[in-house]
Amino acid sequence: MPALRAKHPAMPWPAYRDPADAASITRVQALDIVEKCTSSSHREGFVGYASTPRVTNQKLDYLIKTLSDFHDNKRPNMRSMTALVRNLSDEDIAAMAHYLAGL
User: I need a labelling partner for 32 at 20 to 30 A (CA). Which of 42, 51, 90, 99 fits?
Assistant: First the structure.
């Protein structure tokens, strides 16, 4: 385990980046959700910390599934996330996922 811990910090993040389109960026900015996410949990740039995951530069399908699961209360472990995305439409979730995947 110590060898794995020593190697892990030196490993770069995989490059999944899929730049967000302008429409997704505009839609997410209109939702006024970015400030809520970065100030309370995921930090600036959505890089995460401690037990809060990094969501920037993740695969698009993973982000859509995760956000949809919070929206549909299939992941009740984080009430704050469920509350945050509860009122988003499918189109809003897709835009948010595209935005995060492109960071």
Answer: 51
Residue of 17, 16, 18, 28 whose CA lies nearest to 95: 28
Rounded to whole angstroms, what are the CA distances from 47 to 1, 37, 68, 84, 102?
25, 11, 20, 18, 13
How far apart are alpha carbons 25 and 98 in whole angstroms?
8
Determine the Cα–Cα distance for residues 37 and 43; give it in Å rounded to an integer. 7
For residue range 69-102, what is the model confidence (pLDDT) as tens digits? 999 999 888 887 888 889 999 999 999 999 888 8
Residues facing 52 on adjacent strands: 49
| Distance from C-alpha of 48 to C-alpha of 41, rounded to nearest angstrom | 7
Q: How many CB atoms sit inside 10 A of residue 84's CB?
A: 20
Structure-block tokens of residue 22? 């302008």
List the structure tokens of 21.
């389109």
